[in-house]
Amino acid sequence: MEPLSNFPQPGPVRPVPPDVAAGHRPQATPGPNTANVGIEYSHRADGLQQLTFIDMRTGVVISSTPPPQVLAVVDSIVAAIRQREA
Known about the structure:
Number of strands: 3
Strand content: 15-25%
Structural class: alpha+beta
Order of helices and strands: HEEEH
């Protein structure tokens, strides 16, 4: 069993809005228009699959998975292993 110190410390409690307490569901905010989001699938030379979400109106990359920062760390680890083996 984990010690209690690992659990989050209690914080301020927010009251439940009266409508929610009465069982009414709040109106959902509309999400992005899926017609404006493009998905690009690609593979790197090492076989890793990448998924990129692009705003088709502006051409801006919304997000990419795995993130470029993670790929950079993985590439540096692989390079260090190859250098050590050589």
